[in-house]
Amino acid sequence: MNIQALLSDKVSQALIAAGAPADCEPQVRQSAKVQFGDYQANGVMSVAKSLGKPPRQVAELVIANLDLTGIASKVEIAGPGFINIFLDPEFLAKSVDAAVSSDRVGVTISEPKTVVVDYSAPNVAKEMHVGHVRSTIIGDAAVRTLEFLGHKVIRANHVGDWGTQFGMLIAYLEKQQQENAGEMALSDLEEFYRAAKKHYDEDAEFAERARAYVVKLQGGDEYCRTMWRKLVDVTMTQNQITYQRLNVTLTRDDVMGESLYNPMLPGIVADLKAKGLAVESEGATVVFLDEYQNKEGEPMGVIIQKKDGGYLYTTTDIACAKYRYETLHADRVLYFIDSRQHQHLMQAWTIVRKAGYVPDSVPLEHHMFGMMLGKDGKPFKTRSGGTVKLTDLLDEALERARRLVTEKNPDMPADELEALANAVGIGAVKYADLSKNRTTDYIFDWDNMLAFEGNTAPYMQYAYTRVLSVFRKAAIDETELLKAPVVIREDREAQLAARLLQFEETLNVVARDGTPHVMCTYLYDVAGLFSGFYEHCPILAADSEEARNSRLKLALLTAKTLKLGLDTLGIETVERM
Ligand code: ARG
Description:
Keywords: Aminoacyl-tRNA synthetase, ATP-binding, Cytoplasm, Ligase, Nucleotide-binding, Protein biosynthesis. By secondary structure, this protein is an alpha/beta fold.
């Protein structure tokens, strides 16, 4: 059910009948205030301008041609020429009826597209740190949303699994194996990387060996490949545990690391040269872009192959975009990467477009995000100033949630309590991130995210259980209930119904813009409207059987919508808390 689309169609027709061109924009939006109705159409003004007529006059004409029988109970002109649309309670009732009896609460399947989503992307032999959290959590919510809408989603985990550091890592792994009789001391990846680096910096002979291994690895040497694979394997096994804890849908099959594109790089460089886009400059191969200027105001040079023959992060991202279009047949590619990499991506994609690797009809979208900051407003660090390991962060979340839910549910059995703590703790960390507009930095604050009031996971999870408890008390069979009709008489019923019916519109915004916070705001709003409705419109004590059943159905649709909505965010729900 997409009321906005339905109204857009109707208003378009009326605009055209009033003299507007066939491609006019009806600009139908959800109204921000109840007094403006449920929706408003703002397209009259620009149409009036192009027709050279007074907007109110055009608005009158549009209304005369606007047939909203059975949809709206009132349509009025406001201000300079806005059209306010008030939905008919009967239309709302029928739509709620249809939505509540469907598994998908009436959400239609979009025209299926192949969408590649680049997210998470940790680095090999490094612990996944909080910097990867945002990409993983936000990207996964986008993936779930796109899949729910019926798209074919390809998860692309662009793992950093290639580069000159692997010579050093292989040399150190070898040393470890010799000293510990084959035991892999890779459990602490951070420590492993640091120790490898230390040897590289301090031991000339080790550094020599490391450099030789880089060359051998790139040449396809069997021993080096095996050692490299071990490093990748151990890292991704550890990351997989984290994904599971986070309730993130990535699997080992989704790994499409940098190494995948490695064999394509010589061809890319040769092709860019042949196309006259890349040139030799001081021994390196460079693409000069007029679109970007360096400090001297000259076209910026983007190196795609170094003097020593090595390729760069940009070269890989050029090949990667091409591959996603050519081989994966992407209709659209979404990248969830922090904002500091914006220029890098723009440069890579400018080259991709110039070379004709991906047509303009296939969008390459950078959905960027800011940093995670501590309460002091500085980059999130441990007390001693180190990077916070994700596993430690999740352990702490669980510990805090455990304390919280134990206090609130002293009589709950231990295993249920543990499951609840997990849902609340992990949910809190994820929701705190998801609920903020991703483009800005955000402050990581335990007390805020675990609060039972406000737009938080615990509040939303609790709101869901409250709706469920109404059913437990009603002790009614769902199939029986579905036979009873919804009737809408009270304003609070109408407002809740109208908002519930905007679920699909919300999903579409998240899918289009990659902004899960829009879903959080929506669900929070639904929970608030439900509270108001629950307080003012008695459900179990309704004065007629009809009203009672109708209100139970509104409650049922609320429960279903909250659950599905939280699902698209990757937030677990529980039956009681
Ligand atoms: N591994 C990279 C990092 O940790 C992120 C990769 C993002 N994806 C991409 N296609 N460049 O910074």
